[in-house]
Write a structure and sequence with these properties.
- The chain is α/β, with parallel strands linked by helices and 247 residues long.
- It contains 10 helices and 8 strands.
- Helix 1 packs across helix 9, helix 2 crosses helix 10 and helix 4 crosses helix 9.
Length: 247
């Protein structure tokens, strides 16, 4: 099995965190290709940044999907996830959706711990888009400048633990989701330190991807996730144009 994992941000330090956690989570025999967006922002916080990240992800996915069994969008908020499912011939998973799926198997109400205040509106909309807003206990976030996006866990470790504890004690969270690629791998170090299960988006996406590939459920040919219809286009990257022509 071969999984294509794409970081929609341009931060290589975050890609290193994603790669490390994906490798720890992957089953023996699963090969990983981990890529970084060729353009965009250091880390996505807003809807506009997510739109840019989605296009960067689409370009990389189109260029590298051949030879892979599934694609993972490795940014919480899953920029471009639904659109990529229309286009790509393999299962496409996102960190958010995968983490939410894991959390729903572990408890009824989940809390999300995020890296910034600005990012919380987008995260809330993501949860709502999956029909799970009634199960969201709350979103807690760091409220300090991020000097090193790849060093958030080291720079704000104590604060992140405190946010998790408040989510449990004050919000009633039965599961904690550590949201965002900069927090990839943190759930492993917090296992047993919190009174509720802790979920990581990268490891959830890798494991769910492996399950979907093994299940071989087939590809949508009808409905809203059928491939886009063939029509005239202009100025698209060659790889995207080639995928569109496969219809």
């Amino acid at each position: 099995m071969r999984l294509l994992v794409i970081n929609p941000n341009i931060s290589e330090s975050v890609t290193d965190l994603i790669r490390a956690e994906a490798e720890r989570a992957a089953a023996p025999g699963t090969a990983l290709t981990v890529l970084t967006a060729p353009f965009g922002v250091a880390y996505i916080e807003t809807r506009f940044e997510a739109m840019v990240g989605a296009y960067a992800t689409a370009q990389l996915a189109a260029e590298h999907v051949d030879g892979h069994d599934a694609v993972i969008v490795a940014a919480f908020g899953d920029p471009g996830l639904a659109a990529l499912r229309e286009l790509l011939p393999v299962p496409v998973l996102g960190m958010s959706e995968s983490a939410l799926a894991s959390a729903c198997l572990l408890g009824h109400r989940f809390g999300i711990v995020a890296i910034s205040r600005r990012i919380t509106a987008w995260y809330r909309e993501t949860v709502e888009s999956h029909g799970l807003i009634g199960r969201l206990a709350g979103i807690r976030h760091l409220d300090a400048p991020l000097a090193r996006i790849g060093g958030v866990q080291e720079d704000h470790g104590a604060a992140l633990v405190a946010l998790c504890e408040r989510a449990v004690d004050e919000d009633g969270a039965e599961v904690i989701i550590l949201a965002g690629a900069p927090l990839a791998g943190l759930a492993r170090s917090l296992a047993g330190r919190l009174p509720v299960p802790v979920v990581d988006g990268v490891s959830s996406a890798v494991r769910h991807a492996e399950s979907l590939v093994a299940l071989a459920p087939g590809r949508a040919q009808r409905g809203s996730f059928a491939p886009p219809p063939v029509k005239p286009h202009r100025g698209l990257p060659e790889a995207i144009a080639r995928l569109l022509a496969r219809r």
